[in-house]
Amino acid sequence: MKKVILLFFFFGMFFACKQKNSTTVVNPTEIKKTINTVLDDWHKAASEANYENYFRVLDSNSVYIGTDASENWTKAQFSEFSKPYFDKGKAWSFTALERNIYINKTNNTVWFDELLNTWMGTCRGSGVLEKTNTEWKIKHYVLSITIPNDDVKEIINIKKEKDSIFLNNYSNTKK
Question: Would you say 75 and 64 are in contact if contact means Cβ atoms under 8 Å apart?
Fold first, then answer.
């Protein structure tokens, strides 16, 4: 009986060591390079009005948050909103000026922030990507317009009326 137990023990150790040695070492530099390519290609697809390539990168349950308070879209909603722009051959053009990428411990989720040159001027984007099988998919993206601190009071005054209307409508829909 002791020989059988020892045999199972040695086989177990052998296979455990074999599996440990066969794991792939993931290089954070390579992950960041891949994510930069995914995001640069995603922005490029929009600038070329390539609808398929643009929306292929968004995961099926992704969320896109735009610059307007009402823009908190599912992939389907954002796709529907965006389709007419892509169909006209003119979507939008965002170019990353800088990007910071952060990786979780299991190397299957990244989050990032980016400074963008856009038709709206300087903007910020941030988001989360998850690796599904062999592809990275955008799970969440937030676009925001940057406002110089010295101009915040002026912007608050400019948007005061529309914010009031939005908040009134928002609170009425939550009742």
Answer: yes
